[in-house]
Batch of 2 targets.
Target 1
Amino acid sequence: MVEDRKVMRVLSGETVFPPPVWLMRQAGRYLPEYRRTRKEAGSFLELCYSPELATEVTLQPIRRYGFDAAILFSDILVIPDALDRDVRFEEGRGPLMTPIDAAGIAGLDGSRMLSHLAPVMETVSRLRQALPHETTLLGFCGAPWTVATYMIAGHGTPDQAPARLFAYREPEAFDALLDLLSDLSADYLCAQIEAGADAVQIFDSWAGVLGETEFERFCVKPVRKIIGKVRQRHPQARIIAFAKGAGNLLSTYRQKTGADAIGLDWAVPLSFAKNLQEQGPVQGNLDPMRVVAGGRALDEGVDAILAELGNGPLIFNLGHGITPQADPEHVTRLVERVRSA
Ligand code: CP3
């Protein structure tokens, strides 16, 4: 029964204490077993497209820590890869691809996306078979704005200036790109749900570089469109939306997008998080640097979140992905501290 899955109970509005816990990027380079499998796979994308190895790395943090949710091992940039944008991940440089322009946007063809991503759906169904019954399986995609920032710049940037500039200079092409990414993301999330994902998360990691008007047009509107389309096919779908850095704009984000739960980064004050929790479930928001530091910094961060948000619907998580420098023992301590609260 899905009701045995604590994350699913919180997503339907229940308060569960101690709260269920998982960490963004929980499968990753801080784990020696991940680094071994990653080497075996060759390239990062080969790892994403190997159902056998992607299943293995998804399960690694579940075996080690018994998290309440497993997140499909893949990347938000498999969509541009499925659009033939020449996506590469180079050691120490992060993601790279050929920057797109207005003509490139007009020529994008999404018709092969689902066949290109069939191995990901195979991973999802293997995972649902392999996971403990009580573990929630999360699928995910990047939000259109965040995916577009990488497609336009061709690499990561500190402030997404290239995408912001492109949006001002080429508004029609930019809208067309967000629209296409919204449609493809909705189809991709539906396929993950059909393959066995219990719930899905939409990552808008670069929401925080936008002004109010642009946040509304580039973040809220496309995410609302995705959620609407997913719910047309799967009315019961549970959806978490994470708009990193959105600050005060989060006060209406849940209502405007239709998300069940909202993810909070570590800069969201707990007093404000408490108000957001009056509207529904929240997920977050420990500073990943507290996991690197360990000790008192870790304990105090965990305790503050539990004290402020523990008596409402909460999924305990970090405020962004765990970093490669984190000590795996600190994660053990985090999970024990949450579970013994
Ligand atoms: O465990 C999990 O959370 C599942 C897997 C997952 C990855 N990426 C694996 C990954 C998820 C959910 C993502 C999401 C993702 N990818 C986001 C949104 C969340 C966030 O962190 O903001 C973004 C912006 C990306 C794009 C991306 N992928 C970047 C910028 C990088 C390079 C930076 C880095 O950490 O190296 C990646 C590569 C990547 N994706 C790695 C992993 C484990 C590291 C690459 C490697 O192992 O060589």
Target 2
Amino acid sequence: MTNVHNILTKYWGYTSFKPMQEEVIASVLDGKDTVALLPTGGGKSLCFQVPALAMEGICIVVSPLVALMGDQINSLKERGIKALKLTGGISFDELNTLLDNALYGNYKFLYLSPERLQQEIVQNYIKQMNVNLIAVDEAHCISQWGNDFRPAYKNITVLREIHPLVPIIALTATATPEVLEDTISELRMELPVIFKNSFVRENLSYQVYKENDKLYRAEQLLKNNSGSAIVYVRNRKGTIEISDQLNSLGISATFYHGGISAKEKAQRLESWRSGRVSTMVATNAFGMGIDHPNVRFVIHLQIPESLESYFQEAGRAGRDGEYSSAVLLYNDSDKMQVIKQFVESLPTTSDLKKIYRILNNYFQIPYGEGEFTKHNFSFSEFCKTYSLNTLLAYNALNNLDRLGVIQLSQEFGRKSIVEFLVSSEEVLNYFEKDVTASVIGKTILRIYGGIFEMPTAINLDFIASKTGQTIETIISVLKKLERDGLVEMMLQITDATLTFLVPREDEKTINVISRDVEALNRKKTAQVNSVLQYIENKKTCRSVQLVSYFGETTASKCGICSVCKTSSSNLSSKEMKHLAKQILALLEGEDLNSREISEKLTFAETDVLKAIHLLMDAEKIKSNPKKQYYLN
Ligand code: ADP
Ligand code: MG
């Protein structure tokens, strides 16, 4: 293990491991399948990066988010470690070159999305590589019981088939026992060693308030904030509105959601990271893998759909170990809203039967047939044809996908986004010279009125039908416009492709899966209920409530959440001072954590914690990364 320490210091300049890292690394080096279940900010990346550097060969990292990969690659490159990534949007030629590099260029890390992994050429190259470790980051995405479930994650097992002897390490911060079990079995891990660290975050104050004027409350919290903040809202429109409102209140804010272009995302992220803008207003699309140290506030203006996602989002505060707040603001209509959005929109068995039947009719599948047939699928057109409730239909199709009746390609639910970068005059001038571009371009301008003002989602099928051109032609025109600097775009070839995986048997098909459907619905309902219970329970320490949801039953009261803070202390200010003095006296001898301090004193634990925080605020004491306190 000295080698491992050397690597840590040589490449990262760190002197010691964070809790559990060393144990995880040892297990990997021992060749064992390993699960690292560490909270957000727990240092999971090093758990596979360090052992991979200690071994010959290349580590394959499967990671769900492109932005996240970019960050990790950059950080590795800065440290002089050779790493590359395969994401969407690269041409076949580029792909070949990259894979050649990975194979022959002494690279240590190859990051790829699960979708990329499905390509045969990628698999063929990986076969030839000397793979030392397979790392699956944010591994809970593989579980259909989790919130971030991604169908393509199911096929990661192909790596196990290609390199059966190479250990797999799965990393996640989502710890519910069900998701964990599912993740392990889906990845076909063999007798994995599971490392789990406490999910208690001692510097994080969880607060929940019922508030009619949520924006006012947010303003009060944020106006003296010297660090960064994240404000989570439910939808895209909300991000823009709230960020405008905060700006007009003098709080510098920007916004982020899944629909803005990659370039804009990068710019907004950068202005927030650099501190030029203090507050990021975002949907839950913002976050996975965001590692920003001085986030002092994470404020939720709406009720999250599960405690899993709440814990992750809240956990982005205070990653530097300084005192930070995670504040959930809600009112009664929010409670109704979360039920409406996440419970009432759950498709029942009979909803599924209906959707499945019309889906078959839509593609004219005869009874008993259709198995393994593949179709281009425009979700919006489908809903329009049958006047379906889109949320319900969306959930129903996702369920059919999860339960193996159909398979939807990854693009499902997304669209191509186009943004014009130059003025309309310049565009029209350009069209003068190019007839095809002109036909297609002008049609786009006609259909999408506001496209000069903002990035706009376009439907390629629709443009094709309007112009009488093939989708390929439209794409090549758009690509040319992009090369010539007129537009920027994120391209999705069709809404989705849909493959039927079983022959059409109408009700019978659905009856087979009805138990799973109901289990899924129960699970989802229970998740929402857990959040509502968390909000309603004003008696139990917030931190205790959260970590016990994740199976940790031994945690003690945090002393700093909205429950602990308001539970009245019996101590007079004189007694408090006395207690504070005793703590200072204890710390003269040695550095101690809050438990140890509490054990040495006769005061109630909540009072001790309160005194510790008063001393912290007065800068009489400080804490080290081991959560021990010492005299300042
Ligand atoms: P996670 O993936 O668990 O959320 P990351 O791997 O992104 O966490 O790490 C969080 C932060 O902790 C990063 O800035 C990382 O550099 C830092 N970190 C990781 N290991 C150590 C260590 N041993 N000592 C100090 N900092 C560390
Ligand atoms: Mg991570």
